[in-house]
Predict the structure of DUF1013 domain-containing protein.
Amino acid sequence: MTQPLMPMATAVWLVDNTALTFKQIAEFCQLHELEVQGVADGTVGMNIVGQDPTASGQLTWDEINRCQADAKASLVLSEDDVKAVPRTKGPRYTPVSKRQDKPDAIAWLVRNHPELSDLQISRLVGTTKPTISAIRERSHWNIQNIKPQDPVGLGLCKQIELDEAVRQAAARRDKAAAKSGEAPAEAAEAPVEAPVEAPVEAAPEKELTAADVFGEAPAEDADKE
């Protein structure tokens, strides 16, 4: 086991009952330092009951006192006699009490991080692509009551996970932008068409006279003769 059971609840207890720094608690519980600060400020984990790691044998008071005396020291998790079986990959489990908060978290991610793909949002919040699409298109059955809220504050994902997803999405967006900015080779080598010349207007036709047709001289010339 690399992290304590119920890491957020453990962080809440450590903040309330010890003088450990936010960084020490964050490293021990594998949380973001800002999450621990949010716990101390009362903006994260407001409804979470603290879990004493010393009662479950995951931490000792000697270890806590050692790290309280040295702010640079790191807490060491007590080893279990029986090794825990690592969890296999699968859908993220969300407690029943928090499942109603998923639409609010999805709306927040769609609004504040449009670069995230549906797959990334699905992994962060533990939801389905049809639900994400419905919220994106505002066709969700309960769209009028959905209020965007930070999924980290709701306890649906960790700040570290959100930061990593945003970093990956930004890298993917920059790569796509750089690729689309290159001019295609065929377009660069295309021949330049010659300008089309305007047609020359024909001179107006001359009105024919009797002299032109029969070869006769005009009447005035005949009188002179």
